[in-house]
Design brief:
By secondary structure, the protein is mainly alpha-helical. It has a domain of 67 residues. The protein is built from 3 helices and 2 strands. The protein is rod-shaped.
Length: 117
C-alpha cells in the first residue's frame, strides 16, 4: 500500500560506460604511439678531438691551396679522415678567414670546423 505524500527516492548510480570508453581510448592511443617511436642507435661518429692536429701558418693563397691538396691526398693515401680546423684569433681580419675557407674549397676539403682562437 502506498502512503500518500511519501517520496520515493531512487538509489544514485554512477554510469561507468564513459569512463571505461575513455580508458580504452587512452590505452589504445598509448599502445599505438609507443610502437611508432624509433629506438636510439649508435651513430658511430668520431669526434674531431681524436684526430691528429696540424697547424698551418699564414701563407699566400696559391701556396695554401697546394698545401691543402697535398694534405688531402696524403690523408686519402693512408685512408685516414681529413679535417681542417680554423682557429682565428680575435684580432684576425675576417677576409683572411674567408680566404682560408675558399682555399679549403679549392683543395676539395669539405670537413672544415672552427675552433677557439
Amino acid at each position: 500500500m502506498k502512503i500518500k505524500g511519501a517520496v520515493h527516492v531512487e538509489e544514485a548510480r554512477i554510469d561507468l560506460t564513459p569512463m571505461i570508453d575513455t580508458v580504452m581510448f587512452l590505452l589504445i592511443f598509448f599502445m599505438v604511439t609507443t610502437t611508432l617511436g624509433q629506438k636510439e642507435t649508435d651513430l658511430g661518429i668520431t669526434l674531431p678531438g681524436s684526430l691528429a692536429s696540424n697547424v698551418a701558418t699564414v701563407m699566400h693563397a696559391g701556396e695554401l691551396v697546394r698545401t691543402l691538396i697535398r694534405y688531402r691526398k696524403a690523408s686519402e693515401a693512408t685512408k685516414s679522415p681529413y679535417m681542417i680546423t680554423i682557429q682565428a684569433e680575435d684580432a684576425a681580419i675576417y677576409e683572411r678567414v674567408v680566404e682560408v675557407m675558399n682555399a679549403c674549397a679549392g683543395a676539395g676539403i669539405k670537413d672544415v670546423t672552427f675552433g677557439n682562437g
